[in-house]
Amino acid sequence: EGGSGGGGVMPPIRVVIADGEMNEDVTIKVSDEGGGIPRSHMGRIWSYLFTTADPGVQRSAMNEGGDESDSGGSDFDTASPLAGLGYGLPISRAYCRYFGGDLSIMSMEGYGSDAFVHLSKLGNIDEPLP
Question: 29, 39, 101, 130: least buried by Cβ within 10 Å?
Fold first, then answer.
């Protein structure tokens, strides 16, 4: 599985920011070696509630704080996972587009993924209103 190696040591996440004086965009690239996304899933990663998270991992994360009486049992419980719910990528792309940019993902199954955030640095772009 990617660069995980199975030894418990997580591979590094790399961040590159391209912001030259002549660039019209600020581009941020975030790269990981977490195993990537299968090509068969790439068309669905922008759909709300689509997740590849293992349901067992989500259940264990939610039960980490003990029973519900110990942790409050609410949506704001600190034991609830913040990842794997299927909202992160679609909302992130919507924010990028709202601010005149975009978000794209390039993935290599079995190795890792690169996320590219493009944000316009020109101050003369109108706010996109419905």
Answer: 130
